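User: Before I run my own analysis I want an independent prediction to cross-check against. Here's the chain; please return only the structure tokens and, at the end, one sentence I can use as a sanity check.
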Amino acid sequence: MEIRIDAAEGQGAPPSDLFISMRIGDMQKQSRFTNSRTFRFPDNADGKGSFGRVELFKRVGHATVGLEGLNDGSSQDLKVPVAFGDAVKQSNYNLRIAMNKNSSTADAQKASAAAKKSRAKARMDAAQKYLQEHRLEELLAETMREVINDKPADPRKYISEKIMSIMAPGANEKAPVSPPVSPGGKAPKKQAMFTDFGNYYS
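Assistant: Structure tokens:
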């Protein structure tokens, strides 16, 4: 939802250092106020969308801090010139700024990504093992070659009957063939299913 706040007619221009904030539930939006400001909130934010809180702020001081010189766990002192109320003389408000890099979150994200990759590989290996144990790739490839060569009027029925005939009791089933091993002792990379359809037309 959008909340628009406008200055009432007849009022002068707001000071350049006037800020306005709008809070609904646990969410707060803040910005410099220039006669009109629109804030966007989720619908019924935090289930507390019946009431909102508007606050006006005036800046009393500001300073720029360089973050490049801050390392993990290091800190630096910062003096912010401020002028409270109608005081003409400025004073300094001393702050200390520290940086802590959230390395634990980064490590957790890396570990989660590695675990996800490992689970995906395990699923792929299990699927490939299942296909090899039941000779499904060979079965489907043989069936596809025959259906393309014969071009039956009802290919679905033809495929169904062909598969059932191959798997029928007493059918001559070939023993599973282990993948060849290269001279270096490593099995060649597995190829994707049905990458070469040219053989089906031979």
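Sanity check: The chain is about 30% helix and 20% strand.
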